[in-house]
Amino acid sequence: MYHAGSRTVQDRVGVRRNADHVGRSIGRDIKPVAAAFLGLQPMLVIGAAAPDSGRVWAGALTGTPGFVRATGTRQMSVTGRVPAADPLATALTTVGTPVGTLALDPRTRRRMRLNGRLRPTPGGFAVEADQVFANCPKYLQRRQSYETVGDRTPGTARRSGELSRAQAAFVADADTFFIATVHGDGADASHRGGNPGFVRVASPTELTWRDYPGNAMFLTLGNLAADPRAGLLFADWTTGTTLGLTGEARTEFGPGGERRVRFTVHEALETPHALPLRWSAPEYSPANPQPPG
């Protein structure tokens, strides 16, 4: 269930027993309640390593609810593809690609992760599940509703090797981002949230954030302990603009179990109006710590 990277972090923080208890919730089957949840979602976050470059990216697919669905007790099917120029395009059309997926519903503050191996299908792809589990709503902002903007067209993607001032401000103002990590022959996609300012831009090529206390499994930090490659995805929940970052991350451990992640940007990809969803304003999670001044 846990690989050596996760075990290393669990032991360092002293939560192995808690991790073993929580880890019992991880299975391979998509239970009926999880299948129903998937069928209601208009967005799916995906993380994987690009086969051509080896870089890890996090991305998102959207569609009418039902575009993501369980098509077996251990299979999830997705209708739709990312654009050909997307860094995940090859990964999502290659048989056997390890992928991590995250279905997150801001309306109910529920989320579930399904990690496994991908198989292309005529209309999209399917994922054979290796891990299926839910996460608690901690640090997840509530957004009461969304609308699909039918005439929204993605703009031209802009690539760069560092953050512009506008992109740095975008990151610093974020209350949510998604992180993709990998290990051995697996991948994972997860969520990080907090009040605006919880992610700090140390320089045009470096971000930092505090790793808040969570479920004790340390799947993300465990993956980073084994393989530092990571991908981040920031989204504007109003305009649909996305900012994808790929690079490497390392965890810095402080006294009392405090942890901070430092991410080095190797490439940035900003796509105006990439997502057709417009969400209502956030209600910040009561669990969010106040960012330091």
Automatic annotation (TrEMBL):
Pyridoxamine 5'-phosphate oxidase N-terminal domain: residues covered: 165-250
SUPFAM superfamilies (alphabetical): FMN-binding split barrel (SSF50475)
Pfam family membership, one: PNPOx_N
InterPro entries named among the record's database cross-references: Pyridox_Oxase_N, Split_barrel_FMN-bd
Listed name of the protein: Pyridoxamine 5-phosphate oxidase
